[in-house]
Amino acid sequence: MIEITRKRIDVGAVLDSVRRDDAGAVVLFLGTVRADPGVAALDYEVYVPMARKVLAELVDRARSKFGNLEMSIVHRLGRVSIGGDSVAIACAAAHRREAFEACAWAMDEVKRVVPIWKSEPARDARAPRRK
Amino acid sequence: MRLRVKLFATYGEIAGSKELMWTAKEGERLGDFLDALFQKYPRLAGHRDTMLLAVNHSFAPPDEVLHEGDEIALMPPVSGGAA
């Protein structure tokens, strides 16, 4: 499952999308909007067709790097309030080590190569917010 | 040839538009196009070293040859996720 959505992320559906009988481990990562001083929400801008393509390539690269696994990535578009999930990555693999490592690697890659930008909707909206 | 140019995040604000149509000479490379674009929008030029470039949804180097109808994206360093 690769998805860019304006709706709340259905975490259960993301998890179910990676479950399979030959997997002994399922890892879920959620990125959530943190209550930094003055921040009430974050706006996410996404170059949707390219983001979908880069995310699909990322899952293929995860398989080459960590072996046979199932991975889903869902990212929000638009405004997400404090505590809301902005990204969900689920990974299922035969053993926990590959599942943990692939999930962590995928999140680093999302931040590095997927065309998504966040900004604060308040008075600092003009400045892109770095991680 | 006609090119569709997309400008993301702060770049759209600098150029005053998130999307524009651009006419370039046949056979022009991405780097040539950027030189011309920066003449029109000098405030974008300062971002050249960190700018991510894509042609038709794939990252592209400055020597990539452009074609009629290509979609070019100028993107600041990405910052998705949270945490």
Q: Can you give a write-up of this model?
A:
The complex is a heterodimer of chains A (131) and B (83). Chain A has 131 residues and is of the alpha+beta class. Chain A has a single domain (2-119), classed as Molybdopterin biosynthesis MoaE subunit (Aldehyde Oxidoreductase, domain 3, Alpha-Beta Complex), CATH 3.90.1170. Helices cover 34% and strands 33% of the residues of chain A. Chain A has 3 helices and 7 strands. Chain A has helices at 11-18, 48-66, 96-113; strands at residues 2-5, 25-32, 41-46, 69-76, 78-81, 85-93, 116-119. In chain A, the strands form 2 sheets. A 4-stranded mixed beta sheet of chain A has the order 1-4-6-2, sandwiched between helices. A 3-stranded antiparallel beta sheet of chain A has the order 5-3-7, with no helix packed on it. In chain A, α2 (48-66) packs antiparallel against α3 (96-113). The longest helix of chain A is centred in the middle third of the chain and has 19 residues, at 48-66. Chain A is globular. Chain B has a single domain (2-75), classed as Beta-grasp domain (Ubiquitin-like (UB roll)), CATH 3.10.20. Helix content of chain B is 25%, strand content 27%. Chain B has 3 helices and 5 strands, in the order βαβααβββ. Chain B has helices at 10-15, 30-40, 42-45, and strands at residues 2-7, 19-23, 52-55, 58-59, 71-75. Chain B has a 5-stranded mixed beta sheet with strand order 2-1-5-3-4. In chain B, a hairpin with a 2-residue loop joins β3 and β4. Chain B is globular and about 40 Å long. Chain B starts with a strand and ends in an 8-residue tail after the last strand. Chains A and B meet through β3, α2, α3 and β7 of A and β4 of B.
